[in-house]
Structure prediction request, 312 residues.
Amino acid sequence: MSEIIGVDVGGTKIAAGVVDQHGNILKMARKPTDTRTADSVVATILEVIEELGAHDADAIGIGAAGFIEEDRSTVTFAPNVNWRNEPLGQRVEEATGLHTVVENDANAAAWGEFRFGAAREYNSAVVVTVGTGIGGGIILDGKLVRGSRGFAGEIGHINMVEGGIPCGCGLRGCWEVYSSGGALLRAARKIARQDRERSAGMLELAAGDPEAITGLIITEAAQKGCKGANDAFAEIGKWLGQGMADLSALLDPEVFVLAGGVSEAGGVLLRPAREAFLERLTAREYRPEPAVLLASLGNDAGIIGAADLARE
Prediction:
């Protein structure tokens, strides 16, 4: 197979690209996600595929948020697009005549980074996607870990604090509540309310209103040296590093790759996360330290990974 179409299905947009065997995107297409019905989402996917010229591709790979069955075709549950037991792969394959593989979007992005991005020099990797929540993908000995039903990798819901802050999943104390974009906003706004002098850099960008502080403002202020903004990154970095240390004890990867919107802050997040990770790493003096790197493929990782998984 030479050229594969990779599709990344998001809650607000569907992005797709024609990907060659080296992970290069040759052509791109995007459309807003029509989430009115399950059928309307499928229709939009088919429109994007047609725009790319499905007749010139050898197969299709789709990355979608939610639980994907072991048949790599059926979406059991996807809250953002109202899918319940949706035979997505089968429907796309019937409409296009092309072999179609469906994978969880975080797994697809992780595979993209593993094959062609920051983790390409490693054989075992955990990709931690830090955005509104925390997602992830696990590759051990060169193989994507999907679990017995295809539901593995929901690392954002590892319990970190018994009876802690409520999570959107219905439980309390999940990792993503303490180390995601939402956690960063919560920490930064609290710091700004309590110490305006220390948070002057953020407040200047937010017109003096702590509640107007955004993730972009926190990142810009931190990179300019705002102490309050750096305090907020240190807070979520501490929890991020602790979670990675726990995953390291369980999975023993060679590398962790930080992806997602929050990770784009670069060193202001990477430094405290790496420090906390090394402090909590089990038997550190007797083992090689896993690398902690930033993702390199950005928003294209899901498209590239989905396409490559369909190539297998």
In short: The first strand starts at residue 4 and ends at 9. The first helix runs from residue 38 to 52. The CA atoms of residues 122 and 254 lie 7 Å apart.
